Amino acid sequence: MESVFTADAKMTSYWWDRSPPEAPTQESLPAKVDALVVGSGYTGLHAAIELARGGREVLVCDAEQIGFGCSTRNGGQISTSVKPDFASLVKAHGDAVARRIFEDGRHSLAWTEAFIREEGIDCDFAVVGRFHVAHDKKSFDSLTASLKTRPKGFEVPAHVVPRAEQRSELGTDVYHGGVIFENHASLDPGRYHAGLVRLARSAGVRFAAHCKVTATVQSANGFAVETARGMVEARNVVLATNGYSGPLSQWHRRRIIPIGSYIVATEELPEALIDELIPKNRIVSDTRRVLYYFRASPDRRRILFGGRVSIGETNPRQSGPLLFREMQRLFPQLGPYRISHSWMGYVGYTFDTLAHVGEQDGIHYAMGYCGSGVGMAGYLGMRVGQTILGKAEGRTGYGETQFPSRAYYFGKPWFLAPAVHVYRLRDRFGI
């Protein structure tokens, strides 16, 4: 079988071409800091920036290179990030908390745009709108009905695109129409991350790459933090590891489900073909439980297509052909072309499909974005920083909920393969 990869295909993030990972350095660690942040993604960087600008001495540690995780591997799509509908939130948490969570979702989108513009981060940010497409007629009816049941005060700019008009937004007849959410946005996640690192450094934040944190022990002055490169005393610790959480905190590990999300980028395509496939430069997602998401690259030369294509975890060389086959099913026009990049990253899911923020055993945390963290991760990281600084505005609706686990879960999602299989069957048969 002919390879779907170009001769020079890379099994690394497309975003790393323009924003390559920093070369590691071996600077000595400070003996003492005000705050030590574990994880150098959006959550950790925004917490660090907030703390450093508040006068705190901050160290960011990462077990890998700076920005190794999903902050430089995602699809660059920004939404309001709240997965459960309002009725489900009210049933689980009450009306007041549900409203605060919806407010946080709306604020995270607006705040991310404002932060990028005010700080002058050059990351191809654009409010392009999301086309959320229905994979069957039942999903279209449910999706369009949901626009009429939003609580008062949380209406959003959105409009329905019926299947008969779908070609005006998307070059395929496979889907059954959908809804345009007009305020959703896109960016280059690699350049966004690089911009945050620059802001953090300018605020005085120090970084330690390839410096795994292996233990945190509460002490009279805060924490004694054991790392791969020595001990650091810290008044506060922020855990910002999300889908890359490990044994450092078993409490958090039992609440975060790491799920691999896989993405490919096509080789460069003719301009006319991009205009046919995604004519209005929307970001796109579908209504499957095991969903696909895709968009044009910021320069509109490639299509980036992501999702989950295997029951268990695999590697980019194996996932790439599977994703490309699905992309060709949606867009037969891509038949003659090949993949230039194939990569993956771990998103952090939770049992209630909500992000969570708070403090456990003295450690502050924010995580569990369930695949919608480009805006929410930074927003909640910022709120964590405000909370440590003693600012009242650090409080969020997400912090008013319990962070659930299950008696049978200890950090390794053995149930993921059968769950994906069941969800695929439900997607296929509309149940």
Account of the protein in words:
The chain has ten helices and 19 strands. It has helices at residues 42-53, 86-93, 95-119, 137-146, 189-202, 250-253, 271-277, 316-330, 373-388, 416-429, and strands at residues 5-10, 32-38, 58-61, 77-78, 130-133, 158-161, 178-181, 185-186, 206-208, 213-219, 222-227, 230-239, 257-266, 283-286, 292-296, 303-307, 339-349, 356-360, 363-367. The strands form three sheets. The protein has a nine-stranded mixed beta sheet, sandwiched between helices. Strands 2, 3, 9, 10, 11, 12, 18 and 19 form an eight-stranded mixed beta sheet that branches. Strands 4-8 form a two-stranded antiparallel sheet. α1 (42-53) links the parallel β2 and β3. α3 packs across α9. It starts with a strand and ends with a helix. The model has no long low-confidence stretch (mean pLDDT 94).
Give short descriptive properties of this protein.
431 residues; alpha/beta; 9-stranded mixed sheet; 8-stranded mixed sheet; 19 strands; 29% helix; globular
Please outline what is shown here.
This protein is of the alpha/beta class. The chain is 29% helix and 24% strand.
